[in-house]
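Board notes (copied after class):
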Amino acid sequence: MRTVHWNKIARLDYFDNIDYLLRDWSEKEAQEFIDAVDETEFILIQGNVEFQNTDMPEIKRCVICKQITLFYRIIDKKNIELLRFWNNYQHANKLNL
């Protein structure tokens, strides 16, 4: 099993997405997002699956939902760092990892 660490930006992105969903959509959509993140985090902890590679070494990505992609990096065999919950409708040139 591995440990998942959330960096500050990933935590801010996560809560910003929840706030947006609660403000502009509904509690149901917010809960679906939370559940999808929890499920993905569980998969990462188990270490059975690695998601899609990116152009950046050691950084992978996973689609949480159509609108949000999680970027993370593998620190070592036992540790993963969540980097960003990126809104796919934003310009990719603004993505700082």
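Comment from the instructor: The longest strand covers residues 68-76. The beta strands are 3-6, 52-53, 59-65, 68-76, 79-87.
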